[in-house]
């Protein structure tokens, strides 16, 4: 289909509109392609949110080996079971049984109360409770360690207080002199360490990042694979014609994923009664820019390699591990310097920092102003680059159709 | 049997001849084997930049600052008297947390009144937050214990008795299966299984999808078994690379039971290859496998139960997750060579 040369604003709009209309017709005839920018992203976001909807895991099963069988050991057991994060699921008679339980992952940890527990405490010596935990499961064992430490600390404090009361110290002074300087732990920003806010909120943009770069690579790469470049761009298109055609085509992916992203962001914050101190609106704007950048990355990968498959491989390499390098689970400053460089080159790292600042840390807007603007500039540059790549490809039909 | 063997061999040749499938089945697992553990090489989070806001300027507050500086978890970047500046530095990402030593800290302690040091960590980043809170808690706890033991001694208790009576029951933590409790040791072995699954799924679906495009996929059951076996063998080679060489060189916890690892691969890889072939027939398009499967790795990682407790999943997901091979596989690979050693220690004690 020949196109009029773009020499006016009206002409530019026509090019964009033609490409956008053509894409609508294509999407209607290809249910898979339409699904990948509409209901698949929506469903995937819903699934991720659902996984973490419990917020904080409760009642993680632990085992117990009580060699003491005393009032004190029973008290400790009651305390453990009463903690919301723990459930004393199994009582093991001996070490061998506990070993089997841990190995088969029936329980994530075993608390062992030694045989001379009460006697040691009565004699005024320090007694030890042992916690064996499955450290291969980091989240589980971290939560269990924290809860067991708190329970044992409570029991220990109770014993000390009772002992001092017996010696005639009044309760009030005891409480102060037991811990002359206390640490008041204030975890700013995500006080309950709620995983729905912490992990799900960070994973949703990571998921959309994968989807957006895939969409960019797919919509441009498929024209090359199917040898339909001439139908899309016209024969020997000018730079401006290609730019308009790229914009008109990619617009739909951006709209679809952006709307899903907005719904996910609003859903996980206001929808769940979480009113972040920072600006949800600015985060949402940053998300749209981030998605535009991801789509532009995919388009560039496709137009530079002229191969849909290679572009998708690049998408996998860049976006799938982006979360691991993003500094959310494991901090960037603890990575080796090479990995730090790679992390800082990835757009996800910069987007998620903005989101953390606004949603979690309640930072003033000034802190997060620059990043989305830089990302906007980067998107524009990548789009220009992929336009150049496509214009070059349009003149060489022999290079189309790579599988 | 001859059909099976011929089909097996033909499929291996097809994998070798197809650059895209070869990249996914052979190159990608090796590449990701180095790439994925890269961020976690150092394992532990140490020397997290923090600040101390000292409003007391006493010998006690300086002692706490010294202990914090000496703590391996913390790197005290600056000590100042300005709370606002600390908050700004936290937002700007210069520090990850700070402690506020209040005015009259020492006066309260000397008078026997209680004093509180406030530690502010950044809950947006869990591991950093933990390092900051624990680091300061250790520093303050050490100073606090020193003050208390001195008081107990003044009241006539011996040093050892004083130490015991201020903490009558302690907890001893024994990490199993991952003795260093490193983050990499926890994430990498389980993610390795996911990489094996995803690359084999995409590779198999790509190969079969290409066959469907030209109508080559129709074949007898024996031929299909040969195809699945061939794809599974390539996947198993990648698996051997992971369990053997990769984990040994990078020293991540690996099964103390090599036979068990072989049995795991012998079951896991055919299951994944089979699923990949089914997806390929369904997609009927060479590149579709990558387009659709790339996004699945994130949700799959979190339903498999290694990074997120399966007890916390909604109940329908607790059942559905077993449809994915990686869920069963990550369940079966607990165990470490050093684990037996810990167990022996526990029994002796």
The number of domains of chain A is 2
What is the makeup of the main sheet of chain A? Answer: 4 strands, mixed
Assign the structural class of chain A, choosing from mainly alpha, mainly beta, alpha/beta, alpha+beta, or little secondary structure.
Answer: alpha/beta
Mean pLDDT of chain B: 82
User: How far apart are the termini of chain B?
Assistant: 58 Å
Count helical runs of chain B: 15
Task: Give the total of beta strands of chain A.
Answer: 5
What is the helical fraction of chain A, as a range of percent? 55-70%
Structural class of chain B: alpha/beta
User: Looking across the biggest beta sheet of chain B, what order are the strands in?
Assistant: 2-1-3-4
Describe this structure in words.
The complex is a heterodimer of chains A (403) and B (349). Chain A is of the alpha/beta class and 403 residues long. Chain A folds into 2 domains: 252 residues, no CATH class; 119 residues, abc type-2 transporter like fold (3-Layer(aba) Sandwich), CATH 3.40.1710. Chain A has 17 helices and 5 strands. Chain A has a 4-stranded mixed sheet, sandwiched between helices. In chain A, α11 runs antiparallel to α12, α11 packs antiparallel against α17 and α12 packs parallel to α17. The longest helix of chain A has 31 residues. The N terminus of chain A is likely disordered. With 349 residues, chain B is α/β, with parallel strands linked by helices. Chain B folds into 2 domains: 208 residues, no CATH class; 119 residues, abc type-2 transporter like domain (abc type-2 transporter like fold). In chain B, 63% of the residues lie in helices and 10% in strands. Chain B has 15 helices and 5 strands. In chain B, α1 packs across α9, α8 packs parallel to α10 and α8 runs antiparallel to α14. Chain B starts with a helix and ends with a helix. β5 of chain A pairs parallel with β4 of chain B.
């Amino acid at each position: 289909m020949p196109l009029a040369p773009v020499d006016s604003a009206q002409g530019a709009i026509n090019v964009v509109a033609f490409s956008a209309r053509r894409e609508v017709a294509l999407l209607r005839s290809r249910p898979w392609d339409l699904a990948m920018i509409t209901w698949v992203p929506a469903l995937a976001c819903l699934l991720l949110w659902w996984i973490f909807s419990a917020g904080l895991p409760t009642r993680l099963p632990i085992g117990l080996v009580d060699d003491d069988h005393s009032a004190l050991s029973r008290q400790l057991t009651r305390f453990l079971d009463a903690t919301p994060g723990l459930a004393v699921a199994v009582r093991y008679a001996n070490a061998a049984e506990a070993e089997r339980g841990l190995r088969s992952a029936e329980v994530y940890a075993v608390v062992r109360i030694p045989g001379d527990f009460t006697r040691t405490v009565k004699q005024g010596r320090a007694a030890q409770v042992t916690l064996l935990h499955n450290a291969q499961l980091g989240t589980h064992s971290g939560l269990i360690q924290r809860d067991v430490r708190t329970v044992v600390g409570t029991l220990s404090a109770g014993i000390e207080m009772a002992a001092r009361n017996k010696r005639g110290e009044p309760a009030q002074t005891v409480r102060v002199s037991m811990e002359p300087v206390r640490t008041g732990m204030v975890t700013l920003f995500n006080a309950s360490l709620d995983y729905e806010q912490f992990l799900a909120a960070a994973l949703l943009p990571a998921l959309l990042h994968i989807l957006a770069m895939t969409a960019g690579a797919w919509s441009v790469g498929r024209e090359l694979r199917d040898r339909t470049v001439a139908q899309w761009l016209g024969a020997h298109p000018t730079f401006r014609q290609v730019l308009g055609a790229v914009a008109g085509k990619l617009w739909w992916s951006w709209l679809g994923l952006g709307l899903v992203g907005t719904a996910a962001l609003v859903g996980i914050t206001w929808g769940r009664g979480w009113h972040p101190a920072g600006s949800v609106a600015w985060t949402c704007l940053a998300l749209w820019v981030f998605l535009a950048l991801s789509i532009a990355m995919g388009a560039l990968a496709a137009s530079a390699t002229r191969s849909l498959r290679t572009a998708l491989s690049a998408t996998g390499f860049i976006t799938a591990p982006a979360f691991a390098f993003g500094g959310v689970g494991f901090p960037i400053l603890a990575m080796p310097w090479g990995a730090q460089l790679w992390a800082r080159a990835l757009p996800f790292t910069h987007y998620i920092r903005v989101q953390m600042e606004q949603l979690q840390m309640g930072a003033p807007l000034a802190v997060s102003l620059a990043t989305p603007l830089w990302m906007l500039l980067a998107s524009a540059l990548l789009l220009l680059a992929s336009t150049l790549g496509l214009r070059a490809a349009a003149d060489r039909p022999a290079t189309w159709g790579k599988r | 049997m001859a059909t099976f063997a011929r089909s097996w061999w033909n499929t291996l040749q097809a994998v070798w001849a197809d650059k895209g499938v070869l990249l996914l089945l052979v190159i990608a697992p090796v590449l990701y084997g180095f790439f994925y553990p890269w961020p976690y090489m150092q394992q532990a989070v140490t020397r997290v930049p923090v600040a101390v806001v000292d409003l007391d300027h006493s010998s006690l507050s300086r002692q706490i600052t010294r202990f914090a500086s000496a703590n391996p978890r913390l790197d005290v970047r600056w000590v100042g008297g300005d709370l606002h500046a600390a908050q700004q530095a936290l937002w700007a990402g210069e520090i990850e947390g700070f402690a506020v030593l209040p005015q009259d800290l020492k006066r309260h302690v000397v008078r026997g009144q209680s004093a509180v040091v406030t530690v502010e960590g950044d809950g947006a980043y869990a591991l950093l937050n933990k390092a900051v809170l624990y680091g300061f808690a250790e520093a303050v706890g050490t100073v606090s214990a020193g003050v208390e033991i001195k008081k107990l001694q003044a009241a006539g208790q011996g040093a050892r008795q004083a130490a015991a009576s201020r903490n009558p029951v302690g907890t001893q933590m024994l990490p199993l299966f991952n003795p260093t409790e490193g983050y990499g040791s926890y994430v990498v072995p389980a993610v390795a299984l996911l990489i094996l699954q995803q690359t084999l799924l995409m590779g198999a679906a790509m190969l079969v999808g290409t066959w469907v495009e030209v109508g080559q996929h129709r074949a007898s059951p024996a031929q299909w078994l040969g195809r699945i076996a061939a794809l599974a063998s390539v996947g198993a080679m990648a698996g051997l690379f992971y369990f053997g060489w990769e984990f040994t060189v990078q020293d991540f916890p690996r099964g103390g039971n090599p036979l068990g690892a072989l049995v795991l691969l012998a079951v896991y890889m055919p299951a994944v290859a089979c699923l990949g072939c089914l997806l390929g027939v369904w997609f009927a398009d060479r590149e579709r496998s990558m387009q659709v499967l790339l996004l699945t790795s994130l949700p799959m990682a979190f339903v498999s139960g290694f990074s997120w407790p399966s007890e916390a999943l909604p109940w329908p997901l607790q059942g559905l997750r077993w449809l994915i091979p990686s869920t069963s596989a990550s369940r079966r690979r607990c165990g470490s060579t050093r684990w037996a050693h810990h167990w022996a220690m526990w029994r002796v004690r």
